[in-house]
Write a structure and sequence with these properties.
The chain has 243 residues and is mainly α. It is built from 10 helices and 4 strands, in the order αβββααβααααααα. A hairpin with a 2-residue loop joins β1 and β2. α5 runs antiparallel to α6. It is elongated, with a radius of gyration of 25 Å. The relative contact order is 0.09.
């Protein structure tokens, strides 16, 4: 009987997987295996509507807002009208986002992109010039300028990853790859995979990858000062013993 029960459970059809995008519920069961970003599509499970369906509206807007291909694929998926209303906070965010779009905040500015590229090139070249001059001052200035260069590359590649530099996905992804490779010595695709999960379930422990590094970047400055003072005192004690 146990064996027959196990066999029945094995042969039983798996439940269909659905997500909500705007006012429709889409069946993504057969699409999961071919989704280009892999499992990130299921990270939207962090938010559910009144019927318990995962709401992936914001995730879709962030990842595929400028992708014609993604919208065509979405139109081909089996769908049905969503019955319940969206969570109030999500609906309010969507309304606010649409207002910003209407005011032009999401419109790419080619002059701004050109300025950022010139900024990066200038920081990198002036940093090299300082290293070439040498000396303590030149080396320190070179480190500072290349540190700024790396930081600004981080901002630049972030916008490229969101396809919000030029609005052209092909161009933006290549600009991101250059900024990540030259400025940060890393891989844009790897960053995209992690950051997509962040936007699929922002600030949700167990879903948002950025939350896993919170202890490294969230610091209580009072406690930090106490720890630094403690180690300074300990260092002086050891120095006295050494002398």
């Amino acid at each position: 009987q146990s064996t027959w029960g196990t066999f029945q459970n094995t042969m039983a059809p798996s439940p269909r997987k659905e997500i909500r995008i705007f006012d429709n519920v889409y069946d993504i069961t057969d699409f999961l295996h071919v989704h280009p970003a892999g499992s990130v599509i299921m990270y939207a499970n962090a938010y559910k509507d009144q019927d318990g369906i995962s709401d992936a509206t914001e995730a879709f807007s962030e990842f595929h807002g400028r992708s014609v291909a993604a919208k065509k694929v979405l139109a081909l998926l089996p769908k049905r009208p969503a019955r319940g209303k969206r969570q109030e906070v999500l609906a309010a965010f969507q309304e606010w986002r649409e207002k910003l779009k209407a005011e032009g905040y999401f419109q790419p500015d080619p002059y701004h992109v050109a300025f950022r590229i010139v900024e990066l090139i200038s920081l990198f070249l002036f940093g090299l010039l300082m290293f070439w001059k040498g000396g303590i001052v030149g080396t320190c200035l070179g480190v500072l300028l290349h540190g700024l260069f790396g930081g600004r590359c981080g901002w630049f590649q972030h916008e490229g990853g969101h396809n919000s530099l030029t609005g052209n996905m092909f161009v933006d992804k290549h600009l991101q790859a250059l900024a990540m490779g030259i400025g940060l010595g890393s891989d844009g695709n790897a960053w995209n995979r992690v950051h997509q999960k962040h936007h699929a379930a922002p600030q949700k422990i167990g879903f948002d990858q950025d939350m896993e590094v919170t202890p490294l970047v969230s610091v209580d400055f009072c406690d930090c000062f106490i720890v630094i003072r403690m180690y300074c005192v300990r260092f002086l004690e050891l120095t006295c013993v050494g002398f």
